[in-house]
Write a structure and sequence with these properties.
This protein is α+β, with helices and mostly antiparallel strands. It has six helices and five strands; from the N terminus they run ααααβαββαββ.
Amino acid sequence: MSKFVIFVVLLSLLSASTPKKFKGDEKPDWAKKDIRDFTDADMERLLEQWEEDDEPLEEDELPEHLRPMPQIDMSKLNPEDPESLLEATKKGRTLMTFVSVSGSLSRDETEQLTKLWQTSLWNNHIQAERYLVDDNRAIFLFKDGSQAWTAKEYLVQQEKCESVTIESKVYPGKFAKNVKEEL
């Protein structure tokens, strides 16, 4: 009797754990293939089937391209200032800012200088990742793009900052001699 009870329990567990997607030989053609013969489309269908019973992700856990755009209250924006509109549209979006350093600094000196600027930004609760792309040029990556304009105000005041480029617009540094328009 106890063997029968164990058998029934195991059978019910096995039936509960098997996928309920297909019954018998009702599998579509792509599912009957050997896994090594799957195309990218087949793998995508398999992933969709696998994830269809998952709970949806929270809004803040979604990848950036799937998050809804932030709502912009146009009544609070100054129509005379296009930068405020641009700043509002970048809220919550990743944004890259290019920063050029003036003078003939070595790569190590540029690294130290931009690291100091990054630390100053972090101390003011502006989170930016920094990547050196040239001996006198760095990228500051902002997870919240609206912070880039606040950071720009700080950076252009620095003595060794030649220019800051946001969205293809060049902002010359306060102490810069000649800044050409960059695209």
